[in-house]
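step=encode ok
step=design start
structure_in=
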């Protein structure tokens, strides 16, 4: 069965950094658009960043709130997508979910908690 397993979450102080990883299995990773979403308490899930498939150019897209602080990238040899998060702010606190889109099919990971506080 398809699996998306996130890791790398944790607690950091404002200004700190974390790198999230999403290891996938049993999907056509290279052909998938991969994304990171987050959901804070009491808020709707929102797109943080996405990266298109290699065949589509590997184009990236970011929410305005994370531009110039977060970087999404993929390693097709490891079927893994990453989210490098720098200069973290308290408002980045949320559960972060990995997402894979292949045609009409969408898959989600279980989420990893990121907490930013002093």
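sequence_out=
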């Amino acid at each position: 069965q398809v699996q998306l397993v996130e890791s790398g979450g944790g607690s950091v102080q404002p200004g700190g950094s974390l790198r999230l990883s999403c290891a996938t299995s049993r999907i056509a990773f290279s052909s998938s658009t991969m994304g990171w979403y987050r959901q804070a308490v009491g808020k709707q899930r929102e797109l943080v960043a996405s990266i298109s498939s290699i065949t589509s150019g590997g184009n990236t897209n970011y929410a305005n709130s994370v531009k110039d602080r977060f970087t999404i990238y993929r390693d097709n040899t490891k079927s893994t997508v990453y989210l490098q998060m720098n200069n973290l702010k308290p408002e980045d606190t949320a559960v972060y979910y990995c997402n894979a889109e292949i045609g009409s099919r969408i898959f989600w990971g279980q989420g990893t908690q990121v907490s930013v506080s002093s």
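step=design ok
step=annotate ok -> The first strand starts at residue 3 and ends at 7.
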